[in-house]
Every structure is written in structure tokens, then in C-alpha cells.
Amino acid sequence: MIKKGYILLLFMLAVLSCHDIERPQKPDNFIEQEKMTDILYDISLLRALKTYSVNDMRALGIEPDSFIYDKYEIDSLQLAQSIDYYSVNFNEYIAMWEEVSTRLTAQRDEIQFKQNDLDSIRIEESKRRRDSIKKANTPKPDKPLKTDSLIAPVSS
Looking at residues 30-59, what average pLDDT do you find? Predict the structure, then answer.
């Protein structure tokens, strides 16, 4: 009986504590879904680049946050408010991230395809080089060896 009382008390606390959660209102400077998807895509690429090669980004003078703000002509508050709004509207947010995932996968596949083409070209060039070296190093049986005219052939 006491267990049921505790469970009922926990259930009521959970219901009452979640009662007054306010959903963020649509901001005045709201970023539309298509543009927001592009922003999330670029943020994902920059995060990947940042984890892969921070020094290269520094050498190129790329600041990820500034790059996003300048490219899309937004500010940090506008981005934060739009992300808050979309994160509460779960279906729209999931749809945007699925689009970002699809685009990232397509980009990865395209890069891998190009890399495989380059690898196959390198392999072919390497084979040709080995074949030409091998061909140059093998004596040709159909050409007679030159003999010096001053030296008489040795007969046995």
C-alpha cells in the first residue's frame, strides 16, 4: 500500500511539474526552414572540419561562427532563437536534420567516388611505369649484340 502511495505521489509531482512549460514563440527574426537547413548543413561541415583539422582552419583564417553569420547574414541571437523554436517543433526539426543527413551522405559518397577514380588512375599509372621499367630492363632477343670490330670473335 505504501508503494502505491509513493508511485501516486511521484506521478502527481511529474504531472504538476510539467504543467507550466512554455514553448518558445516564433521569433520576430525567424529563419525559414529551407535556410535553416542550409545553416545546419554548413554547421555540420564546419564541425567535421574543426574536429579533423583545426590548424588548417586557423591557417585559412576561418572562424566557424563568423563564417555562418556572414554567409547567411544572421546574428547569434537570431540563430539561437530559431534553433530553440525548431527544437520544440520536433517534426520540423527532425525533417531538417534528415535533409542535412541526406545531403552529407550524398557529399560523402561523391567524394568517395572521386577518390576511388583517382586511386584507380594511380594504380594504372603505377602498373604502366612498372611495365615500362620491366620492358626496358629485359634484353631483346631479336637484336644481335654489337661486337667491336677491333676485337676478333673468340672461337672455340
Answer: 87
